[in-house]
């Protein structure tokens, strides 16, 4: 009786991570966002966290990761895009308040806060939006 042994070679996580980090350098929007993206690989499972500026950039990057040899899964539940977060924050704002600047999870709220709106309550609502890292206010 002949016994066949199958040897499964797993690609080293460091090599998978290096390939993913190279992907960050091939698409100009990712190149710009790469300082706000963190990639971790453990046993081929990739976890991506951080911020990119647009949903298209997020989708493009997440579609590329599984093409890297050795990737077994991708968790991007903590990878956010600023455009989607900005829209979600905008839905919470009362008339007179607007998002002045938004970059990599940092939001600046400007304008005039209505008298009947409590600033602390508003800031707490904005803080609850997934992906918001920091809030700066510049109310008049």
Explain what this protein looks like in three dimensions.
The chain is of the alpha/beta class and 140 residues long. It has two domains: 13-80, Histidine-containing Protein, Chain: A (2-Layer Sandwich), CATH 3.30.1340; 83-139, GMP Synthetase, Chain A, domain 3 (2-Layer Sandwich). 34% of the residues lie in helices and 30% in strands. The chain has helices at 13-23, 28-33, 55-64, 82-92, 119-127; strands spanning 37-42, 45-52, 73-81, 97-103, 106-111, 134-139. The strands form two sheets. Strands 1-2-3 form a three-stranded mixed sheet. Strand 1 and strand 2 (45-52) form a beta hairpin.
Can you tell me the CATH architecture of the largest domain? 2-Layer Sandwich
The order of strands across the largest sheet is: 1-2-3
Count of separate structural domains: 2
Beta content comes to 25-35%
Number of H- or I-type helical stretches? 5
The largest β sheet comes out as:
3 strands, mixed
Q: How would you describe the oligomerization state of the chains in this entry?
A: single chain
The percent range for helix content is 25-40%
Gap between N and C termini: 85 Å
Look at the structure and give the mean pLDDT. 93
Report the order of strands and helices. HHEEHEHEEHE
Q: Could you say which overall geometry the principal axes of the C-alpha atoms support?
A: elongated
Weakly predicted, low-confidence segments: none
**Helix/strand structural class:** alpha/beta
The CATH topology label of the largest domain is Histidine-containing Protein, Chain: A
**Number of DSSP-assigned strands:** 6
The CATH class of the largest domain is identified as Alpha Beta
Radius of gyration: 21 Å
């Amino acid at each position: 009786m002949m016994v066949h042994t199958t040897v499964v070679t797993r690609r080293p996580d460091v090599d998978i991570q290096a390939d993913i980090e190279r992907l960050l350098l091939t698409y100009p929007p990712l190149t710009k966002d790469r300082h706000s993206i963190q990639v971790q690989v453990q046993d081929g499972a990739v976890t991506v966290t951080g911020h990119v500026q647009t949903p298209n950039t997020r989708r493009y990057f997440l579609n590329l990761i599984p093409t890297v040899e050795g990737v077994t899964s991708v968790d991007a539940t903590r990878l956010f895009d600023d455009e989607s977060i900005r829209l979600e924050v905008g839905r919470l704002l009362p008339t007179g308040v607007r998002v002045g600047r938004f970059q990599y999870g940092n939001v600046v709220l400007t304008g005039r806060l209505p008298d009947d709106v409590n600033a602390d309550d508003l800031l707490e609502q904005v803080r609850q939006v997934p992906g918001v890292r920091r809030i700066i206010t510049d109310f008049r």
